[in-house]
């Protein structure tokens, strides 16, 4: 949604609401003004996010839009919404509590009956009790912090989560609305980029830190971020760049990472373990703890048990969570068969590899059977067909064992010979899994039970799709369906459906030429009633394997068309100058006169003549804003101008006197190591540049986004973007009129309602619609983008080309526009794809050079318009080398394809 994008309108759109568990009014998230609409930051005089009357009037329409979209999709109405978060990361004070109370009343008075929640910025105890308290309190945590430049440096595991919860809200479920799933990255050549952030918060981090949450008895958990995204247009705040990949488990370009595989293994285990939903914390091996039961102090153990089923969850990790050492040990556990049991029994030792966490389970149910204990990890436990199925996994460098009562008539055809079997107490058997076992192995296969084991890498290829039962909650596990099956091998399994004796699978296969083979092994654990299988509608030949009953193997492969995807080169560029404002005779008569002498922005001008030159005050808050200051040099001509310019971190502003380029003020220090929010510079006038009569200072200023709430003060979102000081020197001459121009139409009159208020800035080409599909560039000169601007100097130009794509249906291609020249050139490039501003290339700072663009913005089956607004910021030539590259190909894709909605050029409302 676009929160209250225009005064008095909600403009709120819930996308994908049938797949979400909660909808929220989100604040911060590295978005401009933390998600608050730009017009509010200047037109609301009162303190934001308080009970101020004008703030209340401003948010009413937006909240009404949320309520309108959410109400029919609450779980109480048969939908997926289980809670509504009313706000985010704030402080409970006398000025803010009434605001929260009013928010809650607004939701409740409009038929929102699911719990209202809040996310605290750490362990701060806000809105748990007293005025403004919510139904369900939660907090966020980013224990690894955000130093992606040192991705192997870990912070210690946080050990006080449980004590905090028991102290502040023990009667509520322990809830983390945000837990670290990645990291944002900052501007600058010292920034490593998001691959390093993915490493910092990789599967090892997820293994240790996520399971530490389990050990702390956390019962509700949401990761920030699960899926990386794109800060298109003017959505980012000034501290981050276009990509919001975040090093997330699903990358910005939609590729699945090893982080996703680890989360999948954890998630299916939790889904399979209803006994974990209700546990008591028993103790741990901390100093003075209740469980000093390991033979090695380097191993740390926490124990939780279910009071009803007596299932035990021993959570193991290194005592020093940052350690990369391998720790071997024995320990004592309690099971229903052995109140005191020293393990392991048949394997040499328990092992925790460096930066790894795992569980030992006792009295653990799978279907109607029970495991007395297992040191192997559980991926899946439950019934498939009429059989009890247990799927275990582990690292092949470690040994594992489990004890259980084996039932049914055994089938020995598929049992692994590399697994030992030892009789134990009460008719149970200990299955020993020794080091070196890889692939998928059948430990026990009978008419009533199936026990499988795989090494970690093999287990990570498996999926457990829900088989819909129909009805309101048919796709939701435990409340609508408890039917599933296991599918191993494919890159992605989207859905599984059973019709009669046929299993229909829909999903994706990796068809990237550099990484794909001709076929992928397919492994299936299905009900015995399944006799045939299809993959994306095509029949698959399968044969018995894994298990005598309900175990099938086969192969699937990508279609030939998917392995032969070709992308055309970006050629045929046309060029036009986009800075007529510095040319003689340009008239700014139609621009807004910047004559305000007061402002609701709480940051004063530094110097000038009393006029306020903040773009947001005049309706121009997004992207590039142009300023023109007039002065008359009839008598003593000035020699320079001083300008204090605020554009946010990593901004830039180029300055001209008439048609003479004076220089560029960069929002970074000379060594590019300190990113600045504002600058104060003196621009000297070359000899002869001041003319008799009217002279014009033209400023092209980039707005990098507004600040978020800082230290609980929401009025920091009212950022003073623009010119905070102006003075001619010597001061015998003063400025006459100041004119300002940003996005055409400002807050209310912008013509492109589809792409919205955040998409465009104030460059002449943007105001004229040059970036839109269908704009006629046939009269423009032919000039390759790699050649830069004519003459090689400072200025702004538009480059436009078209390309045709013919990507086969049912193919998902990860495409990125990539600037391939080295970092360091003084230019900015604004990338428009079919009219959407999908990238801001800051070539002197970086780090981003690759800009993923997905289907829907790109038309995979037809013509596409690519436009680049090139701003050269020095007298040195620049050579942007933009290419469209394929990052990956999947055969399958989104069923039914993706709808394209890229409105073409219209002259209405344009200059």
From TrEMBL:
Catalytic activity: Hydrolysis of terminal non-reducing beta-D-galactose residues in beta-D-galactosides
Keywords: Glycoprotein, Glycosidase, Hydrolase, Signal
Family, per entry: Belongs to the glycosyl hydrolase 35 family.
Pfam family, one: BetaGal_dom3
BP GO terms, sorted: carbohydrate metabolic process
Enzyme Commission (EC) number: 3.2.1.23
Presence of keyword Signal: yes
Domain Beta-galactosidase: from-to ranges: 278-462
Molecular function GO labels: beta-galactosidase activity
Name of protein: beta-galactosidase
SUPFAM superfamilies, alphabetized: (Trans)glycosidases, Beta-galactosidase LacA, domain 3, Galactose-binding domain-like, Glycosyl hydrolase domain
Species lineage: Eukaryota, Fungi, Dikarya, Basidiomycota, Agaricomycotina
InterPro entries to which the protein is assigned, alphabetical: Betagal_dom2, Betagal_dom2_sf, BetaGal_dom3, BetaGal_dom3_sf, BetaGal_jelly_roll_dom, Galactose-bd-like_sf, GH, Gly_Hdrlase_35_cat
Domain of life (superkingdom): Eukaryota
